[in-house]
UniProtKB/TrEMBL annotation:
InterPro entries: Cys_rich_dom
UniProt domain Cysteine-rich: residue ranges: 3-84, 125-209
GO (cellular component) term, any one: cytosol
Name of the molecule in the record: L-lactate dehydrogenase complex protein LldE
Domain of life, source organism: Bacteria
One term of GO molecular function: oxidoreductase activity
Pfam family, one: CCG
Length: 238
């Protein structure tokens, strides 16, 4: 397959290591990954804020940029959900490209048919299923199935895992008090697990929860994207 990485705005700007982890992981599994330089925003922030007419050019640009590829892999359940669910509704011509977009765990389990990716991560980890991954993409237990196969990793259940962390993109700005309260509840659940690592499929939620954890408990619990855990090996640890 000809695979492209859709890195997303947030990862490209603030968490480039996550994008590199996706490439490292897929190459280790025997696949080449290309990074189309023309890629830009999927339009989720504009769309959710009400600037829906401004999203159409972004949707068309995405479809054109990724048209040559057999699969498009992204380390963001949030952006994958935006593309798959909304791009075809915004512009019918985007349907073909949107159907080729996969969140990383989906691609590994459903397309490549693997759960053991040869990873090694000797930490106590708890997993937060972000709202888009849980409710829009329906990732189910795919990330957990992958984490259970990581050597050295102790996976512990997160209480009230399905509860939103309160980030919600611009929701955190427009409703900051509610967002902070929801985040504090989630952080308390994370601390209660005794895990030293919180994992998720979206760096946006990890950024929100991680900020609260750092302010309230210090650096005892770190946040790590699923891609970085799966890319980690004894020879090349994350």
């Amino acid at each position: 397959m000809r695979i492209a990485l859709f890195v997303t705005c947030l990862n490209d700007t603030m968490f480039p290591g996550t994008g590199r982890a996706v490439v490292r992981l897929l190459r280790r599994l025997g696949h080449e990954v290309e990074f189309p330089a023309a890629q830009t925003c999927c339009g989720q922030m504009h769309f959710n804020t009400g600037y829906r007419r401004q999203v159409t050019p972004l949707v068309r640009s995405f479809a054109e940029t990724f048209a040559p590829y057999d699969a498009v892999v992204t380390p963001s359940a949030s952006c994958a959900a935006m593309i798959r669910d909304w791009h075809p509704r915004i512009d019918a011509g985007a349907a073909t490209a949107a159907a080729k977009v996969y969140e990383l765990a989906e691609f590994l389990v459903d397309v490549l048919g693997v759960t053991d990716v040869g990873a090694y991560y000797p930490h106590r980890v708890t997993y937060h299923p972000t709202c888009h991954s849980l409710r829009m993409l329906g990732l189910g237990d795919r990330p957990l199935r992958l984490l259970r196969q990581v050597r050295g990793l102790e996976l512990v259940e997160l209480p009230d895992a399905a509860e939103c962390c309160g980030f919600g993109g611009t929701f955190a700005l427009k409703n900051s008090a509610v967002s902070a309260a929801m985040g504090a509840d989630k952080a308390a659940c994370v601390r209660g697990t005794g895990a030293d690592t919180l994992c998720a499929a979206d760096n946006s939620c990890l950024m929100h929860i991680g900020g609260i954890l750092t302010r309230t408990t210090g650096p005892e619990v770190r946040t790590v994207h699923l891609a970085e855990i799966l890319a980690s090996t004894e020879e090349d640890p994350s």
